[in-house]
Design a protein that fits this description.
Blueprint (H helix, E strand, L loop, with lengths): L6 H11 L9 H13 L3 E4 L5 E5 L11 E6 L21 E4 L2 E4 L6 H12 L11 E6 L7 H4 L10 E4 L8 E5 L1 E10 L11 E7 L17 H14 L4 E8 L10 E7 L4 H18 L8 E6 L9 H13 L3 E5 L7 E12 L3 E10 L2 H17 L3 E4 L13 H14 L5 E4 L5 H7 L4 E4 L4 E2 L7 E3 H18 L1
Parallel strand pairs: 3-6, 3-7, 7-19, 8-18
Antiparallel strand pairs: 1-2, 2-6, 4-5, 5-21, 9-16, 9-17, 10-12, 10-13, 11-12, 14-15, 15-16, 20-21
Helix pairs in contact: 1-3, 5-6, 5-7, 9-11
Length: 481
Amino acid sequence: MLNLEPKKVWEHFEKLSAIPRPSKHEKAAGDYVVSVAKARRMEWERDEVGNVVIRVPATKGHEKAAITVLQGHLDMVCEKNSGTVHDFLKDPIRLRVEGKVVKAEGTTLGADNGIGVAMSLALLDEPQAVHGPLELLFTIDEETGLNGANNLKPGFVKGLRMLNLDTEEDAQLYVGCAGGIDTVMNLRVGRRRQKSRQPAFRLSVSGLRGGHSGSDINEGRGNANRILVRFLQELDRLSLGYELAAIQGGSKRNAIPREAFALLHVKKTAMEEAHGALKAFQEVVREELRGLDDGVTLTLEEARSDMAPLSPGSQKKTVRLLGAVPHGLIAYSLEIHGLVETSTNFAIVTTTQGKVQVATSQRSSVASQLAWAAQWVANVGLLAGAQIVQSDGYPGWKPNLDSPILKAAQKTFLRVIGEEPLPKAIHAGLECGIIGAKYPGMDMVSLGPEIRNAHSPDEEVHIDSVKRTYAVLLELLKDLA
């Protein structure tokens, strides 16, 4: 037990952390939410995709207040360090307190968005809470395409003002977010007729921080896929012949890749020079990432290979394509100082017998720039002869600075913590854009505690900020009532 305050918030968070809940596998987490509602004799509903809403009666005397929706998502990003033994479909998240933060043992924590879900559920056991009628909305599959929100039906929620609890910055109010598109390249490749006679080696890039492909993309953190491909091209530049059998990097489209691996065959006579090149290149990369990703490590170790290497033509095309895939910040907003407007994430690369697949994600708060960023990335793949598959995307959330719920929240913050936060927008995706489109007229604002390094095993939530956010939430619901 963590034994932290607010007690009920952390109790629910611990119980959620014991329930495996990767995206598309949230049924058990949904069952838990329903069990909480049943135990308290609350009205609840579950739709065909697994979204859950709990309808909470108003505190006596506040029945005529407008309905307020509290919204969070049940799934979590599942990332772990390569040395961590953990099955996200079976094993609980192992929590630990480290000073002023809560972290997990070698995996993502799931505070995104488990803490938001826990705050909503804690309200049901808060004897001093004063509020109007509430709808607690818990969506599924947010992290892999906001599919729960995309499948919401008319009438599932009836309220037209909403507090989204999925922000990761303490004492801030968000009123806008980016939209997004996934662009996938499928490149057909050929292989040599026979297995290589040269020794096999595993080239690894590890030790990077990774992070959220929205909120962290402008920091310049290392991308393991790019670093690995840069070294392959360094081998080409030095004319150190190698045969590429396989390459694997990244695992989530909304996470900056922390680790990448390639299976190579290198001539024995070239190994000493290859190791020297690796050592020199590692120093170059460490200098480039000094202060950002000081732990970056490259290794070249003996391995076994059961695959025939790519044909010379396919190898050249693959390495050149991977070396051309864009990644990172594209533009800052001209309207909101410091806000990333447009970016792209080189997220995943995988190889099979006859195909190399590259998965990327683009984000922008400007629809036309989102479309162009996605086309830019597609163009790179098309030039290499790859087949391109793009998602339908999801809309951004356009800021409304005249929002009544925003103004109410600013006043509450001022009274509770002595500061009135300025409205902000976030480069990450929130479900607010989709929910606003599903329920026209929905007035929304987003808030949450301090969560750092989301979507990576370094994810942490700051304990004091959870207490502060929950206090603001209780007072804001009273003010709205």
